[in-house]
Amino acid sequence: MSGDASAAKALDATDPMAPMKESLQAAVGERATPSASPSRSRAASATRSPLMDQFRAYAKFGDSKADGKVISLSQSDKWMKQAKVIDGKKITSTDTGIYFKKLKTLKLTLTDYHKFLEELSKAKKVEVSEIREKMINCGPPGLTGTTTAVKTAAVDRLTDSTRYTGSHRMRFDEGGRGRGIQGRKDAPDGAGYVQGYANKDSYDKSH
Asked: Which of 30, 80, 21, 22 is nearest to 55 (CA)?
């Protein structure tokens, strides 16, 4: 056996490709060795979930000092309204307030929040999976229900400056733009005529 090993070494020494073969074998060996155990990877993925990400986002909404670990009732209601869980019929903000406060704390952790969802769904006879699905897919916190301007014939009539009369008409130019202080005050021009005199500078022309 020792003679065979010596012969193999001698053959490698004469083979110019030997160093490359050794490096390839080392690379294959490193690739075959797992960098992390599968159980650890599964545990890491189990600690993260779409609902957790949403929970943290809404738990920080409206509070610059929040760390996203606990959520208040107002933040929860904001989340549920955006997800259409609170619809004012089947589930209302009164319902969420009742079952949120049953846990006897002002803010809930994610674990307690799961209990809250289960209690609420059980009482309102809604599948908890349906509630969670809506809350996962509703997107990040946003500004919903903002007031939009409503234009009607009455509004158009009241904002049409061409229909104004008296001193109000003088506040706008022909294009409907405000004239500022010139439309509110009559500044004297120092010409010596009374205000509103229509025949200004006509005396010399007629004599």
From this structure: 80
In the prediction, which pLDDT does 27 show? 55
Cα–Cα dist 26/138, whole Å: 50
- Contact assessment for residue 62 and residue 75, using Cβ atoms and an 8 Å cutoff: yes
Structure tokens at 151: 């234009």
> Side chain identity at 88, as an amino acid letter?
G
DSSP 11-42: HHHH-TTHHHHHHHHHHHHHHHS-SS-HHHHH
Q: Which two tokens stand for residue 80?
A: 């549920």
The pLDDT, as a whole number, for residue 19 is 60
Q: Which residues of the chain have pLDDT under 70?
A: 1-48, 143-176, 178-198, 201, 203-207
Give the residues across from 71 on adjacent strands: 108
Could you give all domains of the chain from N- to C-terminal order, each with its CATH number? 50-137 (1.10.238.10), 158-184 (no CATH)
